[in-house]
Amino acid sequence: MRCLDRFVWRRRVGLAAALGLFGLLSVGLAGASGSDPCDTAWKAPVSGDWSDGSKWTGGVPDASKRACFTEAGSYVVSKTTSAGISAGSVYVGPLASVALSDVSGYGLGLTVADDFTNAGTLDLPHGISITLPPGGTVHNTGTLHLPASGTINANLDNSGIVQLVGGDLQVNGTTSNSDSISVAGGSTLWTAGFSQTAGTVDNAGAFQSSGPVTYNGGTLSGHDVVLYHTSLTLSPDLSGTVAFGCVRSTDTCPLLSNIPHGLSLTINDASGYGVVVSASDGLTVAGTFHLPAGITLTLPPGGTVHITGTLHLPAGGTINANLDNSGTIQLVGGDLQVNGTTTNSGSISVAGGSTLSTVGFSQTAGTTILQGSASNLAGGGLVDIKGGTLGGIGTVSGTVHNGGTVSPGTSPGRLTIAGTYTQLASGHLAIEVTGTAASSFDRLAVTETATLDGTLAITTSGFTPGPADTFAFLTADSRSGTFAAVTGTTISPSRTYAIEYSAVGAGLHVVVLPPTVSLTLPPFTNSRTVTATFATTDLDDAGIVGWCLSESESNPPPDAWKDTKPLSFTLTAGDGTRSIYAWVRDGNGTVSASDEATTAIRRRSSPSSSSGRCEWRFQRRRPCVRSGTR
Predict the structure, then answer these.
(1) CB burial string 256-282: b at 16+ within 10 A, e below
(2) d(Cα 340, Cα 78) in Å, to the nearest integer?
(3) Which of 242, 290, 311, 548 has the least C-beta neighbours within 10 A?
(4) Rg for the chain (alpha carbons), in Å?
(5) Across-strand partners of 200?
(6) 345 Cβ partners below 8 Å, 6+ apart?
């Protein structure tokens, strides 16, 4: 190697070494972001007194100094005096595991003028009071371990682990979480606002927010996060299951966003004053809204609650708004009062003992089913069924217009209309028959006038009505009109329903179809006694037990019947074409319609030769023999 080359190589090696040393010094003095230098740092991974200047590289921290704990290892830094401690900012590095301990008995109060960041492990065995200027934030990207009560007079931003394992933590600012917060049983985390974008909250104790709560993702498990006189905002792309509690006295827990599809939201009563939720505009429930303690939901005048998902109400409640349902409403307990109009094109079910009351009810599709005999739909005037099905076994109060389907019973049962019932031309009344007992076929009981039109749709299942069975399916104070069409009248090949109307209702009775008979006679006969051939059908399978032949088309008298099938019939005197009528009777006593058959009687006389010709007295040709010839 030439001398010049060696010189250049040595210069480069020396420069690299110098840069490397500078880099190590920079890392040792770096702050949370890697760019802020530390004014003073704990020298070694050994325990000591915060106020001992010899433990710090730049003396005891004060409000002007950035204090760092970057030494790898576990060590305790104690406060031994009654005076508080302070720093300009605090940084705990990722390799450090520091316990800030109070051995003075006066409490560990730390005042920080700027920023507090924990990237390692910070243990506060005796609790702590950390105070930052207004708007300041404690950043935790490592582990914050809290075995005792404490206070953070600042915001808390957690993207690491917060462990509240004893006592209570008061955060007098907002708490934001994107990783893990756990609250042990018996402990309480109080915060002046809470938001979560990811991560988990495992709440075995209590977690209450007195400021707005924004839930954008992650998991909330264990006990509810409680809305303490505050609002809830939900991200539109949430999914899964989440529960909150509502604490209120005379105010509300505002819901500032819709409930997205895929999210199951539960709001529980955490105060005993009931769940009162307000929304500043319309509210859409696209997911599941579960309210175990009932709810009072209030919107501005003219506002509408839109249900496209599921509203589950085990204890009823009040909706001070219009209600538009194209999803599912499950009133499984208590009463629901809607102080607005209700429109339905989805599914509404009202449990036994519950009442849905509304200021007007209309349905264009879907179903509204009253599940128990004490279920009620109080329409507040007009119950307008334009489509879909209104059914069940409770009571509908109001003026019912049926342009869709009214289906009494839950296979089967009685539906009561406490008011008037008008069935339009497009309306259907669906009646199921499963037996003769009153509880075995559907009944519609109208307390006032029933006006009929449209279609009566009959369904018979698991049962064959007998010839004498009747079914009074409609009762009313008065009735007018009749059904324009009736479907499902055929019970079997031999039985059908006939509808009967009265001044106060309508009913069905069973008509047994008669047997049929076909009679065949020879086309001509030389005798008054002719052979009779029967062909019969017995649709009711009761058997043919009576036969009757007569030359009169009048219904036969009782003594004209034969117990056995006749093989012939003797006509009365006379020639020419004659008619015979036949009937049969089955084992139920049902007589067939008559069938007519004809035959022609031919009589023969001796030929006359007075004119020298043959006179044919009958139609069949035979040789004519003249007198004196063969």
Answers:
(1) bbbbbbebbbbbbbbbeeebbbbbeeb
(2) 65
(3) 290
(4) 48
(5) 180, 219
(6) 325, 326, 363, 364, 365, 366, 387, 388
pLDDT at position 603 is 67
Phi, psi of 405 (to 5 degrees): -135, 130
- Rounded-to-integer distance, Cα 6 and Cα 451, Å: 115
Token pair belonging to 424: 């339009």
C-alpha torsion sign, points 287, 288, 291, 294 = positive
Judged by DSSP in three states, 438 sits in helix
495-502 and 490-492 strand pairing: antiparallel
Q: Which helix (H) or strand (E) holds 233?
A: strand 232-234
Residue type, 308: T
The confidence score (pLDDT) of residue 468 equals 86
Distances (CA, A) of 118 to 43, 153, 194: 18, 16, 20
Distance between alpha carbon 462 and the CA centroid of its chain, in Å? 30
Angle at 171 between CA 165 and CA 172, to 5 degrees: 160
CA atoms within 13 A on the CB side of 570: 1
Task: Please state, in angstroms and rounded to a whole number, the distance separating the CA atoms of residues 121 and 20.
Answer: 28
CA distance 496 to 511: 5
Can you give the pTM of this predicted structure? Answer: 0.81
Q: % helix / strand / coil in the chain, to the nearest 5?
A: 5, 50, 45
Amino acid at 313: L
Q: Using the CB atoms, write b or e for 584-620: b if 16+ within 10 Å.
A: bbbebebbbebbebebebeeeeebeeeeeeeeeeeee
Pick the closest to residue 71 from 117, 28, 20 (CA basis).
28
Closest CA to 481 of 507, 450, 459: 450
Residues 7, 15: contact at Cβ < 8 Å? no
Cα gap 442→328, rounded to integer Å:
25
Among candidate residues 223, 215, 183, the one with its CA nearest the CA of residue 199: 215
DSSP letter string, 15-46: HHHHHHHHHHHHHHHB-TTSSSBPSEEB-SSS
Residue where the block lists tokens 């090949």: 493
What whole-number distance in Å separates Cα of residue 178 and Cα of residue 200? 8
Question: What SS3 class is residue 348?
Answer: strand
Q: What is the pLDDT of residue 29?
A: 40
- Distance set, CA 168 to CA 125, 188, 208 (Å): 13, 5, 11
pLDDT at position 249 is 76
d(CA 472, CA 485): 18
* % of the chain with per-residue pLDDT over 90: 79
By DSSP bridging, strand 505-512 and strand 495-502 are antiparallel
Nearest to 114 by CA among 62, 43, 178: 62
Burial of 69 (0-12, 13-18, 19+ CB in 10 A): buried
Give the contacts of 274 (CB within 8 A, at least 6 positions apart).
248, 293, 294, 295, 296
* Token pair in block for residue 472: 């009074």
CA atoms of 366 and 122, how far apart (whole Å):
59
Q: Are strands 595-601 and 150-153 parallel, antiparallel or unpaired?
A: unpaired
526-551: b (≥16 Cβ within 10 Å) or e: eeeebebebebbbbbebebbbbbbbe
Q: What distances in angstroms separate CA 93 from CA 126, 175, 551, one per listed residue?
A: 21, 22, 121
pLDDT of 81: 86
Residues in the chain, total: 630
